[in-house]
């Protein structure tokens, strides 16, 4: 297995409920190391650009509004198989369908306010990490 990096975002529903530490404990407990992290307020332009791939989806405008409704924590997670590992730890998009031990099953409010984002492929992870972080901000 290869050591990979993936982009994670703790979404506004979770920062609002003071869940950053609990979510980070799940990452760290599953062998994902937080090698970069910052709390930021996304703008409509930034959130819109980040979710550009979903532009034609019916939930796009709502998703952008939700993502700018409060601060987010953007982070780089590193570990063996980090992209897939993080997707497993996050659980299904819809918390009702997520396995019980996952972040979304434990913390998400709805299919939209689902507490975390995680890159879905190694290629997207590289692009998403460079969207938010300079190389010098990542400290393994
Ligand atoms: P993410 O990109 O945030 O890691 O989540 P994902 O891959 O599990 O889900 P994706 O299909 O990429 O959708 C991105 C985000 O859009 C919101 N969403 N809302 N209202 C809806 O039916 C709906 N479907 C998706 C969620 O916040 C989802 O995480
Ligand atoms: Mg996705």
UniProtKB/TrEMBL annotation:
<feature type="active site" description="Pros-phosphohistidine intermediate">
    <location>
        <position position="117"/>
    </location>
</feature>
<feature type="binding site">
    <location>
        <position position="87"/>
    </location>
    <ligand>
        <name>ATP</name>
    </ligand>
</feature>
<comment type="similarity">
    <text>Belongs to the NDK family.</text>
</comment>
<keyword id="KW-0067">ATP-binding</keyword>
<protein>
    <recommendedName>
        <fullName>Nucleoside diphosphate kinase</fullName>
        <ecNumber>2.7.4.6</ecNumber>
    </recommendedName>
</protein>
<feature type="binding site">
    <location>
        <position position="114"/>
    </location>
    <ligand>
        <name>ATP</name>
    </ligand>
</feature>
<keyword id="KW-0546">Nucleotide metabolism</keyword>
<keyword id="KW-0808">Transferase</keyword>
<dbReference type="InterPro" id="IPR034907">
    <property type="entry name" value="NDK-like_dom"/>
</dbReference>
<dbReference type="InterPro" id="IPR023005">
    <property type="entry name" value="Nucleoside_diP_kinase_AS"/>
</dbReference>
<feature type="binding site">
    <location>
        <position position="104"/>
    </location>
    <ligand>
        <name>ATP</name>
    </ligand>
</feature>
<keyword id="KW-0963">Cytoplasm</keyword>
<feature type="domain" description="Nucleoside diphosphate kinase-like">
    <location>
        <begin position="3"/>
        <end position="140"/>
    </location>
</feature>
<feature type="binding site">
    <location>
        <position position="59"/>
    </location>
    <ligand>
        <name>ATP</name>
    </ligand>
</feature>
<keyword id="KW-0547">Nucleotide-binding</keyword>
<dbReference type="Pfam" id="PF00334">
    <property type="entry name" value="NDK"/>
</dbReference>
<dbReference type="GO" id="GO:0006228">
    <property type="term" value="P:UTP biosynthetic process"/>
</dbReference>
<dbReference type="InterPro" id="IPR036850">
    <property type="entry name" value="NDK-like_dom_sf"/>
</dbReference>
<dbReference type="InterPro" id="IPR001564">
    <property type="entry name" value="Nucleoside_diP_kinase"/>
</dbReference>
<keyword id="KW-0479">Metal-binding</keyword>
<comment type="function">
    <text>Major role in the synthesis of nucleoside triphosphates other than ATP. The ATP gamma phosphate is transferred to the NDP beta phosphate via a ping-pong mechanism, using a phosphorylated active-site intermediate.</text>
</comment>
<dbReference type="GO" id="GO:0004550">
    <property type="term" value="F:nucleoside diphosphate kinase activity"/>
</dbReference>
<comment type="subunit">
    <text>Homotetramer.</text>
</comment>
<dbReference type="GO" id="GO:0005737">
    <property type="term" value="C:cytoplasm"/>
</dbReference>
<keyword id="KW-0460">Magnesium</keyword>
<feature type="binding site">
    <location>
        <position position="93"/>
    </location>
    <ligand>
        <name>ATP</name>
    </ligand>
</feature>
<keyword id="KW-0418">Kinase</keyword>
<dbReference type="GO" id="GO:0005524">
    <property type="term" value="F:ATP binding"/>
</dbReference>
<dbReference type="GO" id="GO:0006241">
    <property type="term" value="P:CTP biosynthetic process"/>
</dbReference>
<feature type="binding site">
    <location>
        <position position="11"/>
    </location>
    <ligand>
        <name>ATP</name>
    </ligand>
</feature>
<dbReference type="GO" id="GO:0046872">
    <property type="term" value="F:metal ion binding"/>
</dbReference>
<keyword id="KW-0597">Phosphoprotein</keyword>
<dbReference type="GO" id="GO:0006183">
    <property type="term" value="P:GTP biosynthetic process"/>
</dbReference>
């Amino acid at each position: 297995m290869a050591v990979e990096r993936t982009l994670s975002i703790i979404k506004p529903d979770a920062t609002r409920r003071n869940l950053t530490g609990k979510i980070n404990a799940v990452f760290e407990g599953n062998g994902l190391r937080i090698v970069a992290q910052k709390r930021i307020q996304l703008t409509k332009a930034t959130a819109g650009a980040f979710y550009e791939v979903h532009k034609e989806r019916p939930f796009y405008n709502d998703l952008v509004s939700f993502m700018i409704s409060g601060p987010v924590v953007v982070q780089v997670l590193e570990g063996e198989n980090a992209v897939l590992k993080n997707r497993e730890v996050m659980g299904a998009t819809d918390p009702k369908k997520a396995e019980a031990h996952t972040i979304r099953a434990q913390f998400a409010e709805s299919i939209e306010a689902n507490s975390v984002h995680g890159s879905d492929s190694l290629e997207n992870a590289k692009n998403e990490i460079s969207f938010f972080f300079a190389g010098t901000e990542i400290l393994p």
